[in-house]
TrEMBL record:
This is Pyrroline-5-carboxylate reductase. HAMAP family: P5C_reductase. NADPH binds at N53. Residues 2-95 form the Pyrroline-5-carboxylate reductase catalytic N-terminal domain. Keywords: Amino-acid biosynthesis, Cytoplasm, NADP, Oxidoreductase, Proline biosynthesis. Residues 157-259 form the Pyrroline-5-carboxylate reductase dimerisation domain. Transmembrane segments: none annotated. The gene is proC. InterPro entries: 6-PGluconate_DH-like_C_sf (IPR008927), NAD(P)-bd_dom_sf (IPR036291), P5C_Rdtase_cat_N (IPR028939), P5CR_dimer (IPR029036), Pyrroline-COOH_reductase (IPR000304). It comes from Neotamlana sargassicola. Its EC number is 1.5.1.2. It is found in: Cytoplasm.
Length: 264
């Protein structure tokens, strides 16, 4: 599989890192006007680093546009004539709709919106996918690529904005919860490094319990909350302060913002 990534910033370089780790390509073009973030990949076999977006498109079958919403339109326009029917065009840009991409490169092209998160660099992304009519034929290919880099879910395009909030922004939300836990642990007497390890490993254990058992979180909570014990005391104090409500309100605010980005 010949893959190009156009835009190798935070997300593009994370995707590149995951692809390189899995060696899941026959050639990989990494194209950016500033190639600093991917210099480390120069030594990798079958990887070409360039600032020539058109060359990267021409030499590849799958092209992943990982540009900011304010740049993607101009870049897509500039390479549109290089995009042929065999190409599978993927875009990770938040709020950049399939209809907009079709207007730039043609509705007869295979177009797939991809919404991964930065955990893609270590093969642990939750990646949501939505295709245009033509791109439906290539959705299995997209699943094959991104299943190597974590888990995938195919969803209607109308849900891509919500998926962006839950899965892509979600990385930041979970990080903040982990950070707050370390702050609590330090207050209870742990050194910062110890606090970090305790928080991260406990978070990992919680997610793993759900993944492996398929249980509902509340079932696992019931197993921890000894009657009149310290866990329920802490949980209820958090809820009195609005923990669940704060999370839900944050998710909704993020969703409102992304819908505003879409329409601005
Ligand atoms: N960072 C994240 O966790 C996620 C980001 N996204 C989306 O991914 C997209 C990229 O986000 P980031 O990687 O965070 O942005 P970024 O700013 O880190 O990366 C964008 C890259 O595009 C390059 N670029 C700009 N103009 C260019 C041009 N004319 N030709 C070639 N390269 C050019 C920049 O030099 C930069 O390296 C955005 O649309 C964002 O909505 C989606 C999911 C998660
Ligand atoms: O914050 C943002 O707008 C982008 C989309 C999801 C993650 N980063």
């Amino acid at each position: 599989m010949k893959i190009a990534i156009i835009g190798t910033g935070n997300l593009g370089s994370s995707i590149a890192k995951g692809l390189i780790k899995n060696k899941s390509f026959t050639s990989l073009y990494l194209s950016d006007k500033n190639t600093a973030a991917v210099q480390a990949f120069y030594k990798e076999d079958y990887v070409t680093i360039t600032s020539d977006n058109a060359e990267a498109v021409k030499k590849s079958d799958v092209v992943i546009f990982a540009l900011q919403p304010r740049h993607i339109e101009a870049v897509m326009e500039s390479v549109a004539k290089c995009i042929k029917k065999h190409h599978v065009i993927m875009s990770v840009a938040a709020g950049f709709e399939i209809s907009k991409i079709e207007s730039l490169i043609g509705a007869d092209k295979n177009i797939i919106r991809v919404m991964p998160n930065t955990a893609i660099s270590i093969g642990k992304s939750m990646t949501c996918l939505a295709a245009n009519d033509k791109g439906e034929e290539k959705i299995e290919l997209a699943k094959k690529i991104f299943n190597q880099l974590g888990a995938t879910m195919v969803i209607p395009e109308e849900q891509i904005q919500a998926a962006t909030v839950i899965c892509a922004s979600g990385i930041a939300f979970w990080m903040r919860l982990i950070r707050a836990t370390t702050q609590g642990a330090i207050q209870l007497g742990f050194e910062a490094e110890e606090a970090h390890e305790l928080a991260v490993q406990t978070c990992f254990g919680s997610a793993s319990l759900l993944l492996e058992s398929g249980k509902h979180p509340e079932q696992e909570i019931d197993r921890v909350t000894t009657p009149s014990g310290c866990t329920i005391e802490g949980l209820n104090a958090m809820e009195h302060q609005g923990l669940s409500s704060a999370l839900i309100q944050g998710i909704v605010a993020s969703f409102e913002k992304i819908n505003h980005l879409k329409n601005s």
